[in-house]
Every structure is written in structure tokens, then in C-alpha cells.
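Protein: Fimbria/pilus periplasmic chaperone
Species: Pseudoalteromonas shioyasakiensis
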Amino acid sequence: MFAKRLLCGLFFVLFSQYATANLLISPTRVSFDERQRSAKVTVINSSDEYRTYRVVWSEKLALPSGGYQTLSEPVARSLSPMTRLSPKQIRLAPGERQTVKIAIRKPKNLAKGEYRSHLLFQALPNEVKSTKPGIKVNMIMSFSIPVVYREQGEQPNVKIRDVKLVEDSINKKLSLAVKLTESQGFSSYGRLSAYATNTAGKQEKIAEIGNLSLYPEVNETTAYLALFTDKKLPKKGPIEIKYEGADEYEGIVFDSYSFAIRH
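Structure follows.
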């Protein structure tokens, strides 16, 4: 069992789209409940040439230090063995879009818990025809999004355990180190924000991390909230930290935590 829980903010995106140099993906994550049996993901070729993508499953294990470890095969909590993808390869003209359908076939007596795999869009290299000698490099890019199914799902039990001021050793800027834990075994998703009271006595947001998930592999993590460029920490007074749900958790406040600035 892992000692810590991963903070996994996979992507920081606008309008629920994952933008790369050549590809737009929407949504950037898929979450199934027990009543839902299918979902759609839209991909758009935003480059100026034809692109071909192979659509496959990838198994990734969230790491305590952040990021993922890619696994060679599915594990007990992988979602991919109970799914079907259509199509499994797409070729798109510039500006063209395609919908990929994910269908779930849940086995009988499926154990309670959360199942996750990552949908991988692997760009295949275009054929390059050239009579000039030299080295030709075709980079193969891939982009993935998490897909989650919850059997007998429960609301994640996320707690903010501690908040500390830390200083970046390079630029000397202060940020807020927020320690979070989850004990229910189901992933969360939402926004982690910091609020301060301004000179007019009103609360204003001074920092935020969006698209923040805590996954079941580990049980503790520390998120670092960097202040907005136009905001400063007050010399004294309360700071409130909130972890608020998004998408299927919209309207839920997982936890809040207040502490006093003294510096």
C-alpha cells in the first residue's frame, strides 16, 4: 500500500478542452456512474495537414511524487477489460473532427470500487517523401485522458490537513503548500483555491489549481498553490483554502481550511 496519495492535475485547460499543437480533445476526462453505459470523446485536428491517430487504452499508475507510471498490462482496477472503443483509428483532415465512442459492458458481481484506464490518442507519423540526403525525424506524439467508472461509488472523503508558506529557492516567491488526504477510496475532481480578505474587508481569490484529482492509489499528497501574478499575501489575517468539486462533483465543497498569516 502506498504511503501517500497522488495529486494529479493532468492538464490545465480552458473550456474543458485539451489543446496541443495538433489536436483538441473534449472532454479531458470521462466519469461513468452505474447508470451510464456509453460516452463520447470528440477530437479535432487543429494542424494544417492530415493526421492519423491510433486510439488505444493505456494503464497508468498514479505516483506519490506526481505524474504516472505506465503499466505493461491491465491490473485489477483497470477499466479497459470491460470496454469497447469505436473507432480504433482515425484519419482527420485539417480542421476535421471525429467522435470516439466508449461503451462499458460491466461483468456480473463486479466488486465495489473505482476502475480507471487512460484513453490514449497516439499520432502516427506521416509519410515523408524527400530526395535530399540526411536524417529524417518523425516524432510520434501521444495524448491521454483518464476514464473512470465507479461501482457503488461514494463521495470522496477529502481533508485538508495542513497549510504552510513555502518559498521558491530560485525566484524567492511564496506559495501555499496544502496537504490533502482521502480515505474513501474514490477519486475526487475539482478546484483548489485560496482566498484572502482585502483592505475593503471583502474576500478575494489569490490562487487556484483547476482540474485537480486525487486518485485511490495513494492516500496523501501536497499541492502547491502559486499566487496569481497580480496578488500578494496579506501581512496578517486569515487565509481560507477550499477544495470544491467540478463536473460530477459540481456544487460540493470537499473541505475548507483557515489559517492566519503572521509574517
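Remarks: Confidence is low (pLDDT under 50) at residues 1-19.
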